[in-house]
Structure formats: structure tokens, C-alpha cells
Predict the structure.
Amino acid sequence: MALTKQARRYRIKKRIRKIVNGTPDIPRLSVFRSNKQIYAQIIDDLSGKTLASASSLDKEIDAGKVNKTEQAAMVGKLIAEKAKQANIEKVVFDRNGYLYHGRVKSIAEAARKGGLKF
């Protein structure tokens, strides 16, 4: 029996999370992608706290006439700025079961340009 899209993504996500963990020194940069929006969080898994977050719904991001990939790049840049304010330089990237292309790749590259190391 074929898996649904959600079940396939959940299996991949579990496989990734066995390896990728956020610590206070090197937190986890998690990406969630819905059909219309994209969200990014920097998470310390040991304490279960979100240290910084950004999304395409934030007021700093002008989502007027740009496509979703460009929106993701803006979110990546914003999460890198918020991470610098929280004194975070190094993170581990959690693509959350999504393929590394398109919006997920765009957010990762923009975060790297913004100064995050992963």
C-alpha cells in the first residue's frame, strides 16, 4: 500500500530527528512549510524552548508582489538577524521531512548569508 504524502514526510522527519538535536550551545533551526506561508524557529531541545522565530506573516516581511521562494529568503534573513540578537551563531538545520530544494533551500541559504553557520 502506498504511503500518503503526510505519512512519507513523517517517516523522513523521524529519521532526521534521530540525528539532529538542538542543544543550548548549538540549537536546531526548524523549518515548517505550509501551502501559503513558511515558518522558521530556533529551538533548544533540552529545555524545550524556542529561542527565536520568524515567519512570512511577520510585519518586517513585505509579502506584496514576491513569490514564495523570495518570501522564504526574507524569512531566512530575518531569522539570522534574530539569532544574532540572541547571541546564536551556530545551528543545526532541520528540514522537517521536506526535500532540500525550493523554499526550504532558499531559507537555508539566506540564513547562511545572514551569518548563521550550519
Notes: The longest helix spans residues 68-85. Strands lie at 28-33, 38-44, 49-55, 92-94. DSSP finds three helices and four strands in the chain. The CA atoms of residues 13 and 87 lie 28 Å apart.
